[in-house]
Amino acid sequence: MRGDSMDTLAGLVSWSRDLKVDPRGWPMHSNATPLKIGVPGKTTFPKFVKVDWNSNLNKWSVSGFCIDVFYEVLNSLEPSYPLPHEFVPYNGSYNDLVDHVANKTFDAVIGDVTILANRSKYVQFTQPYAESSLSMIVTVTPEHGKAWIFLMPFTMEMWAVTAALLLYTVFIIWLLERQSNPEFAGPWYNQLATSLWFTFTSLFFAHRERVQNSYTRVVVVVWLFVVLVLSSSYTASFSSMLTVQRLKPNITDIEWLQKNNATVGCDDDSFIKQYLQNVLQFNPQNIKGISSENDYITEFENGNIIAAFLELPESKAFMNQFCKGYTVVTPTNGITHRFGGFGFVFPKGSPIADVVSQAILTLSENGRLEQLEAHRFSLSPECLNSQKLDKIDSLSWQSFWGLYLCSAVTSTICYVLFATRQSYTGHITLIYSTMLYKLVGLVEYLHIIVRKLQGTTPNTVHALGVYECNSSTAEYTSSSETPKQSQAST
Question: What residue ranges are annotated as transmembrane (predicted)?
Answer without folding.
Answer: 158-176, 188-206, 218-236, 399-418, 430-450
